[in-house]
Model the fold of this input.
Amino acid sequence: MRKNILKINQNVAPVSDAMEKYARDGALAFHTPGHKQGLGAHPLLSKLITRDGLRQEVSLMEELDDLHDPQGCIKAAEELAAELWGASDTLFMINGTTSAIQAMILGTLSPGDQVLVPRNAHRSIIGGLILAGAVPVYLQPEIIEPIGIAGCLSVETVQSAIEKYPEAKALIAVYPTYYGMAGNLGEIADLLHGKNMLLLVDEAHGAHLKFAASISGMPKQALDLGADVVAQSTHKVLGSLTQTSMLHIGSSMVLKAKIRKAASLLQTTSPNQLLLASLDIARLQMAEEGQERLKKAVDMADWLRKEINNISGLYCVGEEIIDKTNTFALDRTRIVVNLTGLGVHGYEAEDILRHQYKVQCELSDNYNMVFIISMADTEETVSRLLEVLQCLARDHGMPLMPLQPPPDVLFRPNNMAISPRDAFFGTGERMRFDEAVGCVSAETVAFYPPGVPVLCPGEIISAALIEAVRKQQEQHLRVVGPEDSALEYIRVIKK
Ligand SMILES: Cc1ncc(COP(=O)(O)O)c(C=O)c1O
Done:
């Protein structure tokens, strides 16, 4: 376990300080951006970003540093973040965790490298494999039967994959899942490192875990369990602007310079300084009061979970699933409400909550809704959520129509004919999806959210998969990935 004794003064915000300094200096702007510090901005934009914000919305000036070769305020901010999260190096990423994950893969793997990937990987991981040319061996996560979703990889699954694929270079773990389930990452890290394999972690939903470390039962963050590289969505659960993430390097088994080179390939040469400042300020906020805020969020979520479980027809997932499902720990700030007892689909409940009660969940699937309780919530917001769930159960239940579990085939890997990269660059042709049985897909098909692929490039399309996808579409779940999002047609590799 990494010790985290803070040595640097965390009570500073170098990026926004530098922006303010440049604006205060009053240099007459003959440079980008075209709105010239707000002078030419449309009033709507000024209202949105504020005059102050626009005055500071410049980049590439000497005092604002260079994201691609940080030496000044960005370097200072990244060092502060590395110290706070306990990384040996941290990179600020402004194209979401998608680019952080892709830089992690491109910076550690080479064309032809075998890599172990859970089937419930986000589509950004498949994108990273296409970029790097690494070849996935898909592993089957545990299915959380009571609520019909994919959970974590078990230690046994990883152990047997390591034995079967000794040449594999790494495992990419999703930790925790969108639904807050965390596998036994510490043991998995030991197994992988015992064979010189890397542990790369998509911790998109776990940037807050560092600050919940002292709360009993909460999952530890991946860096503290031995992960080599970790991509975190600061924007998803902490206080930075959407699109901002961090890429943390945890070990000396990877080359920092190569990961920085990969990140540089994937990021803009005109980084938005507001985004960078927001990452730094989110770090400052967590340094100041992260632990207290997280403690409060977990306490409120625990209360809410208990109350939801008193509502007839609703089941809110709690720590009882841990023994049954290979889940090692549960992020209790994720409120997963299962609706099977009510006979209402997740997407129907989402619609009711949004339009009748003005409450928006994070995600819904066939049978569940997921709500995030973050450090921003208060007793009032959490009580309001409970109130509307009580109304939902009282007014909208149809218990005479039991819901069917989602088709198994959606969680299982399809047979792979060629690598994702070869499929991406292969010669494709359009074909009616319903007639594509036996063809090799050139595209990714996922339902969003959560963006977990049900078909990856290079995989063979089966009749069972087509049938299951059509059933999901009938339930108005949104397809993402293919050129034709209605999926009348799909691109397949030309025979
Ligand atoms: C598990 C997981 N990984 C990666 C991502 C990509 O993150 P971003 O939207 O910041 O690019 C998401 C987004 O929902 C996700 O859920």
Summary: The CA atoms of residues 293 and 375 lie 5 Å apart. The radius of gyration is 23 Å. The chain has a mean pLDDT of 93. The first strand starts at residue 89 and ends at 93.
